[in-house]
Design goal:
The complex is a heterodimer of chains A (187) and B (165). With 187 residues, chain A is of the alpha/beta class. In chain A, 43% of the residues lie in helices and 18% in strands. Chain A is globular. Chain B starts with a helix and ends with a helix. In chain B, helix 1 packs parallel to helix 7. The longest helix of chain B is centred in the C-terminal third of the chain and has 15 residues. Helix content of chain B is 48%, strand content 18%. Chain B has a six-stranded parallel sheet with strand order 2-1-3-4-6-5, with helices on both faces. Chain B is built from eight helices and six strands. Chain B has 165 residues and is of the alpha/beta class. Chain B has a single domain, classed as Rossmann fold, CATH 3.40.50.970. Classes of the chains: A alpha/beta (187), B alpha/beta (165). Chains A and B meet through helix 3, helix 5 and helix 8 of A and strand 2, helix 3 and helix 5 of B. Chain B: One of its GO terms (molecular function) is sulfopyruvate decarboxylase activity. Chain B: Pfam families: TPP_enzyme_N (PF02776). Chain B: InterPro entries: Sulfopyruvate_deCO2ase_alpha, THDP-binding, Thiamin_PyroP_enz_TPP-bd_dom, TPP_dependent_decarboxylase. Chain B: Keywords: Coenzyme M biosynthesis, Decarboxylase, Lyase, Pyruvate.
Chain lengths: 187, 165
Amino acid sequence: MKRIDAITMIARKAEEKNSLIVCNIGLPSKELHHVKDRNGNFYMLGSMGLSSSIGLGLSLSVPKRHVIAIDGDGSVLMNMGSLATIAHQRPENYLLVVIDNGTYGSTGDQPTATSLGTDLGAVAKGAGIQDVYTTNNEKELEQTLKNVDRGVVIARVGAGNASVPIIGLSPEEIIERFMTECARPSE
Amino acid sequence: MDPSTSVFNGMRMTGIDLVVSVPCINLKDILPMIDDDPSMIHVPVTREEEGVGICAGAYMGGKIPAMLMQNSGLGNSINALASLNKLFHIPLLLIMSHRGVEGETICAQVPMGQLTTSLLDTLDIPYVVPTRDNVEETILHAWAIASEKGRPVAVLLEIGFWEAE
């Protein structure tokens, strides 16, 4: 499976649970936008590494909503301290899904440390996160997303970007509709 | 009133309800006050850039966020302040212990101390330098500017601010 397949599954879960999504910069956001654009999707445009942090701040602020942050292996490697902070905050409503394709997909597929032996699931556990799941194929990811609403999922996928269009929304449009959605009651 | 209590009161008056922190010796007495206040969520972080992301998420979720940090952390936050806060017009209160200025005893603090205000100018981040007498209203005013303009605003607490009279 490729990253866009994982994103498709996450988008489906988010629709079912009415989750807010914070999505990593570059191709992941374009793929999510292409698969399922929603007001509840926040597409990062810069600030690589901060998807997990933005998702954490959001989840602490809207405890009645479910929050999913979609991150990448390269981005988590850039901000590994975030895993320690998530561990000691322990938000019940927060699921971080790290789509690990072993490469910097948005910059030409240079290898990341995860393709050279770094195990992000072990890093997340070592950081103190109790609920950590690693999936290696479509079936495992589907099952895990069905059963798990909090903690960290490391979804291992093959390298490669889908051919998808750019996001035709301005930063102002992205944040305005997202904040309106955040302020809406959960039911 | 002691300077730490004044800063904390200013944060309360402003309605700050989520605080990210990276400690500094000058901020050490404020952190327990935040922990003891049930109206504030306190998120200690490992590095300031991470805190910028958390505060941005908190703002989108309806909170009034502040980051307590040393000015060295400004250097760790620049890309996020530009490509997240500036790009999306996200306000943030940066309450910063300003080391490396008059009265500094550690030479390693001096380079960033001297660069702090010019970095803030370059980033188009307004800053205010309160005294003990006006710190409460200065923090309130700083957030008013931040929320009105949709950008970070810094409150610089210089070494003299903390010194006993």
